[in-house]
Amino acid sequence: MLCRCRHGYFHVVNNDYTHWEMYAIGGSANPTINSQGNRFVAPNIRFSKEVTKHEDAPESEWKRWNWRSSGDLLLNGAFFTPSGGAQSSSYAKASSLGAKPSSLVGPLTVGSGALNCRKGSRC
């Protein structure tokens, strides 16, 4: 799962990110992103370890965007680049639910994935 974020508030919580090619969470147009309790396992590609990608903006602009990581598990060299000022009320708006500890992401996502549905039968 990769997250395409533009305007607005995003609370990315308790997901399992593996096998990304360039980044796991990207954004443009000044979104507020609150990443909490996720597990990020970077691929074995030297230049694909960064979790975040600030799209369509120079560093002088995206450094002001509010992106935070709290309680995330970063493995195999994965790293999250936070930005913005001190904790703001934007994060309260972006928090839709309480995150579980990142150590529980495996059990929480074990049954996730694409549904195996067939026409004419219930999923």
Automatic annotation (TrEMBL):
Tagged with keyword Ribosomal protein = no
Q: Does the UniProt entry include the keyword Membrane?
A: no
GO MF, one example:
pectate lyase activity
Q: Which residues form a coiled coil?
A: none
Keyword vocabulary terms for this entry: Signal
Top-level taxon: Eukaryota
Q: Which residues cross the membrane?
A: none
The family classification in the record reads: Belongs to the polysaccharide lyase 1 family.
Recorded protein name is: Pectate lyase
- What organism, scientifically named, is this protein from? Brassica campestris
